[in-house]
Amino acid sequence: MGKGRKQHARKTRARRQGVAFAVSGTAFVPGMVLSPWLAKALQGKRNVLTIANALHVAFTMLMLFTMNNTVLFFLFFYLANMMVGTDGVMTQSMFADVYDYQQWRTGKRYEGFMTNFTGMLTSVSGSLMGLISPFFFEHYGLLENYDVLFTAGVRVPIFRFLIIVSAVSGALAILPLLFYDMTEAKQKQCMEELKLRAAQEEPCPTV
Fold first, then answer.
1. Do the domain assignments include residue 19?
2. Could you read off the pLDDT of 136-169 as tens digits, one per residue?
3. CA gyration radius, the chain
4. Among 4, 7, 20, 116, which residue has the least CB neighbours within 10 Å?
5. How far apart are CA 196 and CA 164, in angstroms?
6. 2-22 b/e with 16+ CB inside 10 Å = b?
7. Largest separation between any pair of C-alpha atoms in the chain
8. Domain that holds residue 41
9. Contact at 8 Å (CB) between 24 and 74?
10. How many separate domains does the chain show?
11. Of the ranges 17-31, 37-51, 121-135, 193-207, the best mean pLDDT one
12. Is residue 93 part of a domain?
C-alpha cells in the first residue's frame, strides 16, 4: 500500500512538472514580442541585450535559493526564459547590423561565413557540454533510471550544476557587448551610404 502511494505521488508530481515546463515554454513569447519596443525604450539593441543577459543571470541565481519553494522556483525559471526570448531576437538583429557594417567597410557581406563559423562554435560548445554534463550526472547518481531525480540528494546537486552553468554562460555573454559600439545612429548612417553607393553603381547590362 505504501509503495502504491509513493508511485502515485511520483506520477502526480511528474504530471505537475510536465505542465509547469509546458507553461514555461510560453515565456519566450513576451520577450520576443516586446523586443522591438524595448530597443526603442532603452535606446539601443546593445542595451536591451546587456540588460536581458544581466537579468537572466539574476533570475537564474535566484533559482539556486528557491529550490525548496516550487512557486518561486518556477517564477524565476519563467522570468529567466523570458530574457532568453529577448536575447534571441536582439542577437539576430545585431548580426544583421554587423553584416551591414562589414559591407559598408569592405564592400562585401559575410553572412555565409559567419553562419558557418557560429554554427561551428555552437557545435564545439555543445559537444563539450555533452562530454562534461554526463560526468556530473553520473557522479551524483543519475545513470539511466531518471526516477532517482525524485530523490533530493540526486536532484538538488544536478539542478545546482545546471543553474550555475546557465548563470555563468549568461555572464560571459555580456563581455563582448562591452566592446560593441555599433549604435542605431551609426547603423542608419551606414545604410544611407550603402544606398548612395548602390545608386552610383552602373546597372548590370541586360542580355
1. no
2. 787 777 777 777 777 777 778 888 888 998 899 8
3. 23
4. 4
5. 49
6. eeeeeeeeeeeeeeeeeeeee
7. 86
8. 26-191
9. yes
10. 1
11. 37-51
12. yes
